[in-house]
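Notebook entry, structure prediction.
Reason for the run: the old model in the group folder had no record of what sequence produced it. Starting over properly, with the input documented here first.
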Amino acid sequence: MNELEKLIAQMLDGKLSPEEITDLKTRLQNDEDARRVYAEQCQLHAQLQANPAVKSSLEAEELIDQPEPVQPDSKTSRGWFVGAAVGMVAVALFAISQFGSPNPNPVDQHTLARVTPEEAYEEAEFSERGSLNRPPTNFAVVTPSRGETGKISFNRDVRPIFSDNCYACHGPDANTRKAELRLDIEANAFRPHGEFEAAIIRGDPENSPVFKRITSSKKSEIMPPVDSHKSLTDDEKEVIREWIAQGAEWEGHWAFVNPTQPAPPRSDWGRHPIDDFIAAQHEEAGLAPNPAADRATLARRLALDLTGLPATPESVARFMEDPRPNAYESYVDELLASPSYGEHQARFWLDAARYSDTHGLHLDNYREIWPYRDWVVNAFNLNQPFDAFTIEQIAGDLLPEPTEAQLLATGFSRCNPTTSEGGAIDDEYRAIYAKDRAETVATVYTGLTVGCAACHDHKFDPISQQDFYQFSAFFNNIDGKVMDGNAYDTQPNLVIPRPEHRELWQEIRGLYEKRNEAFSQLQKDRAEAFDAWLEQENPEVLADRISPHWSVELRTSEGEGDLEQGIDLPADIDEWGTDTAFTLVVDYKFPTLAKGEETLVASKFDGNRGWRLFALSGDTAQPKKYRLRFELISSLADGEMISITSRAKRYVGVSAGKKLPLTVTYDGSGRAMGIQLGYPQRLPIDGDLVIDNLTGDFSNATAVRVALAAVKKSTVKPELKAAENAAEEKADSIEETPMEEPGPALVFYEGVAPLHVLGDDHNAKQFRTQLAGPEEAISSFAKRKLKEYYFSAIDPETAPARDRLAEVESTYRYIYDLATISLIMKEKEQEAMAHILHRGEYEQKGDEVAANIPEVLGGLPEGFSADRMGLAKWLVSDDNPLTSRVTVNRIWQNLFGTGLVATAEDFGIMGENPTHPELLDWLAVDFRENGWDVKRLIKQIVMTETYRQDAKIDPAEYAIDPDNRLLARGPRYRLDGEVIRDQALFVSGALRSQVGGPPVRPYQPVGIWNAVAYSGSNTRYYEQDTGDGLYRRSLYTFWKRTAPPPSMTIFDAPSRENCSVRRERTNTPLQALTLMNDPQFVEAARLLAERALSPSGAIEQSPRSQIESMYRFAFGAEVSDSHEAVLHDSYLKFAERFQENPDDAVALVQTGESTPMEVSDPVAFASLTMVASQIMNLDSFINKY
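New structure, fully documented this time:
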């Protein structure tokens, strides 16, 4: 290596001295060969940086020098030529592009200009910061940190240094503070400190203890301390020196200061104040904005940004041919008015709200809260003002006479993960839930990490532990049980009855609640009677009750006839009453039913007494599923009829024409809750019938479906086996005898059969077995169930109240079970309080504090109530400096890929400073003063020249701003997984446009849910939908928190276990494999190919014409000659392969549930399908540009 090459190598490593910099510049100015060597070495450096494997190989073979590790701290050693990066960038981007798609931040090498070494040098400008091998890690390094006057800004230049290196010991946390010195508060930093005038002496850095300590050479004095493993660079020390010398002007943290609307700087570029602010940064950094993108590109960009779906060929054509001056604006308005707009915006919000269709902890059972999701979609489509949007979600239940929609909105705070795990402690989880809700609201609306103060004062932000618990107190006052009961409808909830039931529901609900409250109070008053009854129970009594002489008989009827003939009731029909307990199992073949239709499954009914079992067809969301309804009818002495009805909440997942055994268990209590509907998991063995319960009272599980028609006849005789401390039932197994002609079958148990539902005994007779042992052996769950049994069937004093309740309970349950449920908030009447928890431990309670906002934000203003309503109103008040900033920043992030503040989740001291602080404040004030109008905000951003720029990259400007933070080019980044999937469905013609409704279950790999589920979970097994459920927007996909949809998490979707306001973007092989192999995408590719074929399936057009059609469907524009050539070449290669393997062609096009088109040439069809898949894997398909 000669002297010139060594100089260049040292420059690339950031190790040149000032003299060497001058020497290198002189050589490059005067020597053409030197410039050539310079460009070649820059390119080699770029290749090595882009491909570490090659570098390692060359180092191993000693083909390149291995520089010694250095710390390029010196101000004089960090010089570098910006223009030197031109060659490096061009080669590096080419190398990156070779790794294929998907690329989280793609660059098309064809857009890079070819630059000669001479051009690279002529355009180069010397900069005093950074080096080629140590790219800037902080945006402050990319942009000049000082204005034209050279003035140091505390917020921009000094505070980041202090926060990174000093605040851990000299910040807000009193527990870790050293020397009683705080560098986050002005008064503390400038007050007398020990023997010194102050820790920082304005205008005198050399005598300021802070500066002396950071520049000390003594290990015992230097700050930060050696054992902290932190150190300041020479540049950082110089910034602090200059700041002190300039007078150490202090500034409050920018985010805690109320925004004011600055006047936009003057600019010749753009048509909006937003453009003026952006242009000012361009000029300061020496950048020139890109020209506007063409209309086809803008049409697709706008459609993806505003609706999450691509533009159709028809809409692109209309837009491109529209001669009106306002054509662009009209197209924007059209997209904002689309129902898809609300669905797309809701997706971002649901990440923040941590929305899920399951509880999230332990069993992770189904939770019904999807109406809240639909409320969010509707709110965005209606363009509800963001202040109202906020108030209704935080405190809609506290509004005067809240509407159903306002109550639904409070589901925001019910989306947190919950549990009902055995051994879980109420106090612990009450604190966990309050912490989660407080953190979520703080992140979403203030961009502050308040949760860091749960165990101690915040290490960096001025948020004390007391501040945190005062804030969490707003959410520590919820009226409802802490444990979710593993139920879908955990209280408090909102019941949304069917339209035809609404009027009756209003009447019956009040009556039911009044009578239920009276019955509950009577039970409390009769607690001693229950205890006395419990003491009277003994093993002798148990033996008599637990071993009745019951039998099991199974008979079959001939063919598909009336199932009544197959029933052997334990009593004559004229002796039938609602106190007759039994268990029934019927094997049933489901017919084809119209929507809302009901059919009789089985009955024993003489017109005034007996029972009937009905099957009800599914609704629009569940077209091929059924629900069950069971009805008991009894006649009283006075001739009055009593009807007890129970309706299954869950659907039976079975198609018409298929058989499934169904179960009914009734305990003789005379109450609807005594009826359990389900279907068996297996044949009765050892006297236990394991049932999957559908009524919602018990946990649910997916059944192993068995054909009871395969059993001919058997009898089970139970016997009691007593032990010292327990009693148990046991019975022989049922014998299986194949039938010659399997037909409908019935099993009837006299009395309540022993039920084991997911490992728990749930009927009173089984609980009594515990009473044979000592009192301490009785579980709290069993005791609770026994109490229910006692008051529902035994206690004579509560019978009148119980009967009055039973009169309305059947109708109440009937409407409730058919209704849609959504979890909501409900406030207790008492004042919102919380205890400060030492180290965040629930059992270490400290002082009790009232609800309030952090002191740094001023506390709740006078007149604001200390509850969630007061909090909600403060969040959107002029007194809060954060909500409007945080909100406009997230919307900017959604459109440009990165916010003006990159750390959307952290506007605190450790968060990134805004790249355009004046623009952020201008937007925040404008948003607030114009009615918190979200559509208006989005429209004014997309109308700017900044947004409309072409995304093509200029290498020289890329070197200055690689992450496009200064926005001298259009946004370009990989789409989120939901958008990629929705786009594939849309362009293939498969996407169903229905808005709202229950969650759906599209294609998913087998076993994912099972791998993370407990045996008792009703989301243990993934039951894939059929029909429309496979082709809905990803927004509606069932979200199991412990196993989110894999095709979305692979593309960095969060699990929604916590609030998420910013997604990461990664690039992994699994993403490419998903796009190429997931049945959803393979089927979409086949459907896209079908769109390019003639309706008859004849291969009439040339492959080129069909490729052009598929490309047009995918992008809304015509394919270029170069792309068409590549795609056609692929087609020929696929056709050659399928000609050799025609079975593979057939197998390919049969992927998915939809029926493939009948075609005249299967090989051509399969080849087109593969080309369609190739189109859907293009960078330009999975990226926005």
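Summary: Residues 3-129 form one domain.
The old model has been moved to the deprecated folder.
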